[in-house]
Structures
1.
Amino acid sequence: MAAKLNRTQDEITYMRPVSNCAGCGDTKVSWSVYEGMKRFNREHELKGKDRYQIVYVADRGCGNLQGYHAYHIVDAILCMGTGAIVGEGIKESCSEKQIVVTASGDGGYNFNISGSKFAAKNKKWGAINIIYNNYNIRMTGGQIPLETDFDKEGAAMGFEVIHVNPYRVDDNAELFKGLVDRYLNKDKVMVVADGVCVLDMRREAASVGLKLGHFIKSEECLDLKFAQEREMVSRDEPEKLKELPRFKCRLCGIGLRCQALLNNDPGLCFGCGACAQFPCPVGALSFEGRSYAISTDITELI
Amino acid sequence: MKKTGALNLGRVRLSGNQAVARGALEAGVRVATGYPGAPISDLQGSFEQLAGNIRRASPFTVKLGQALDEVNYNLTAHWGTTTNEDNAFAFALGAVICKGDRKKREFLTEDEWDLVYGETAFADGKNKSIPVGSRVMCSFKHLGGNTAADAIRVAVNIVPYSGGLGIASGDDRQGTASQTMQDNKVLFSLHFRIPTFELHSPLTAHQTVRNCYRLFEELGTPFAVIMNYDLSYREVSVDLAMEVDLGANMRQKSFTRDPKHLVTIGPHIRPRENKFHAHLIPLFRKKIGEYFDFLGNKVQQYGEKPRTLLLLNGPFREDFQLVKHDQTLKNRLLKKFGGIVAVETTVVFPQPQSLYKKLITKLAIEKICVFEEGYGRVIYMQLLDLVSRYGLDAKVFDCGIPYEPRIYERFSYIDHILAS
């Protein structure tokens, strides 16, 4: 028997990353989860083997696939509607330093209810159950969702339900940092991310005559600086251009999975405002104007 | 740490369900999930009692529970709390994919290890040891296989992370307590294409279950054991002496990141599906042939110059034991068939083709009689395929029965063999 498989043409497959709109709320939550875990370890001065890790177990769906493709934080996606119960199984066999977070869209939530109920009743562990509320985000193209009352249903199962504005990424990172502590105390928390579909953002804002803001990058931005350096090298020493890496810093664009930030083009910005709270390492990123990071309710933005 | 625990519990009565539980516990199973339904309820019910979730009510669970407590055996059981079979199986999947420990290779060569583990997060292992975690059992009645089909199919897509997972299916082929009659040999063999075994006796079921855990955990695949209604409930008296694999039960817990295997999206699963069918099933077939005895199967010759091969599975195998103790039956058998080779097998899928090919060609077998119960004819079809594939000069006869006889109408399988 051959030691290694011969790769046949059939096995050469392509990756099809999920491409979210620049202001999509789903893309922001998983960054906050990851950042929250880092902050928890930093605050408790946990290093090396003492650090806690997240095991991110998800359901099928764009919100979670972007978490896999963009942030590489999704560890397992098995069957549709089983993220919550698979997560419970993992808790049985993973180490005490591994915090299992489960995530699903609202369709998955309905499918997941029996698993979520199990998670809420299981007294051995805590639970952090994230719901991407696609009623607002319309990830799958404006489908008519089931009428779901997360507050009543979550509470009935035994969860404390916390609604978050997904664009307030720093606040949410702080929230998840705190939730790790609560998980270790065996608390059961359901986090519902109430984003707004970017298509609705534009429409809603236009309907009330509101002009949404946009991001601003100062000259300190490492990516812009590097772009200038590339321009200079290509003009003066084009033979050295190949030696330069293509990008130097894209933390904000990759972190928030934002096409506008990745391309340094405010014209592509929908005005969600997530970058207002993004911790740029050199403080070069800011946001000017009104945004949904202030509130997801348009009446509060006027 | 003590690697094995010897438990001597004296004489107890043991049902088929309890025998499967015994095998799983001997293998060191740490997590047991399931969903109740006749005839399998008593299996998961035994785990529930042993885990202390409900009162220990039978002599088996009282005696064994006490003995397991004394050796600090770890057991988590979820039965009624998982709301259906799909939930139970998904829970089992979560528990089995965590591979936080390593064990030495017992059954795989280095090349075979490369084939099974070469593309996983463990591929860099210098001594090519086996990544292991909790051994898990999930049980449900035959209809449960339909309910859990989505999750079971995913278990195939994440091989080898699903190694260490055993499925026990209680078939109610006579529809005694079910709205449908179903032969799950078909489901597990032909649809999921995982190693599948039909148990035949409460006396020996534990050996097959225990050794399946050992072999198929290393091969990285889940396996299924199937029982019929009669076997599930039938009790025998045994002197219960168990060797419990405490090393397996007390393995280190940890989740290892490998999203290329555990995030089941098209680009990840397509090459693995191809590998499973083209390379791994042939490997399972080969290993089942190599460890045929180890898995509780026997090949025995009766009479001179055998020209007939009897392939005896499930209850046919159980009743065939009578031949060994009854000279009259043996004489009738030899008179009917002449010299025979009897293959007493629990294997339903995949059949060890090279073993049969060797037997057929070496002994110049002319006639193969397949005795299996149920509608699927899974073994018969595989034997037909074998004869056709290798151009063997032997005829294959379907001698099974397409149903399970009613439990209160004791059907004589040995009479059926002698009359066929």
2.
Amino acid sequence: MKWYFALNADSIAHDRLYARCVEVAVLSALQHTDLQPHMLFDGPACDLTRWVQRMGGVVVPHRSSLGDAIAASSMSAGMKQIARGAYMRLDLPLIDFESEYVLYTDCDVMFAGPLEFGTLRPALFAVAPEFTIGDFSQMNSGVMLMHLPGLRREARAFDEFVRAGLDQFPAFDQGALRAFFAGRWDELPERFNWKPYWGLNDDAAVVHFHGPKPPQVVQIVDHPEQEIPNVLRELHGRAPTAYAHYLGEWQAYSARAQAL
Amino acid sequence: MAGASATRLTRAAMRAGLLEACGAAWVTNVPEFVAGTAPALFEDARMEWAAQSFAGGRLDGARVLVLGGLEGAHAMRAEALGAAWIDVVEPERMSLLKALAVKEALGLGCRLHRCEAALFLRSSQATYDLVFSDASLGQAADPIELIKQICLHASRCFVWTNVHDPDGPAPPRPYAQEVEMNGLHARTYAEAPGGAAWLDLDGLVRCFAHFGLAAHIVHAEVRDFAAGAHVSVSFRRDSAGEWSNG
């Protein structure tokens, strides 16, 4: 199965956080799964695109089809930069005409075990809860099992819907998906989008650093005097042991990536 | 009354005792211990071939993973060439015990692991400067998974392995299987379903290249061999430097 993730070159222009996230995601995916990495990349070829290709991944140059609408929106410059990356996933039905099902994840994931979706065959897409286990109504679009033909049939109407409300959706694509497809998505078991603040889970197949990113976890633990949003401290405080474990794994992958 | 010298074991006798504890069926000729019937593997050139992908043709300071313990011979050769850290992975019980005996008898510093090669790598976050694989690929039911795992842990790999050659004298391998893994498409050949699956040389090279070890040198290629064609090939990542005395 193809696995897609998306990145805007602006996200890696000033620090290597998201480049390291990509390296960890790709290395852990290859280590544990048969997925073929595909990176939607908005920007020129760079060290990261070459690294992904060297690891057997595919780099798909792409700019969000909503780029003009994002540019014309009332978002701040920083939010526009994030939006250009976040909204790229919505273009997948119009990028990949070969695949029936693909996996999409955010860049800040780490694969921890083989992916076996069993009989799960969503008509549109399957997603896991965001903050609360069992609450699939408040889903998280950071990991999606996508049925591309199903989504393609709704692509035009969805595009019009997103353009009309671009400034209002909370959490970018996630807000748009929740609003347009309300009640129509399938449930993806939590272990495919496991958040460290839910605690340790030996069955987790995909660990998603939703909330504090690994360097922020280091900051929270080692430099508590430094300024960091309270919500991130609160999430870390729910399961510090799990954060320590998953951070260690993440750092080990990141170190390996430097050697490859 | 016996003198003290008569009750003291010589160092050679201590070594011999360790090696004899593993029984008589040694494959190799262990130094200072008359044993095996097969080639003098403690003197074979393959570790030197592997070291050709390093500056000066030596392994000084290198981290080396040996897949296939071969009674400790490869660990000894790697250490002699200067390797600083050697892990040896051997799934077969008796081979592992022999390697352990050799390690103790010769005072080697390697670490031994009883494990199937791909499983060891899949469970590890270690990186190596060199993976030395002797026969492990040719014995694997899923050689592509093993190649992938090697490439995810190392910048260089030396492989001695059997390869499929339909025109060779070896027994036919009629069970061809199309394998897709992480976007790679390859074909393997087995004598029986679920048995050891071999790639042909082109497939071997393509698999390593797909997972990042794109440069290679074929050191030896033996086609006319009754037990199956075999090759000795070094692979490395493009960023892993130049060949030495290629």
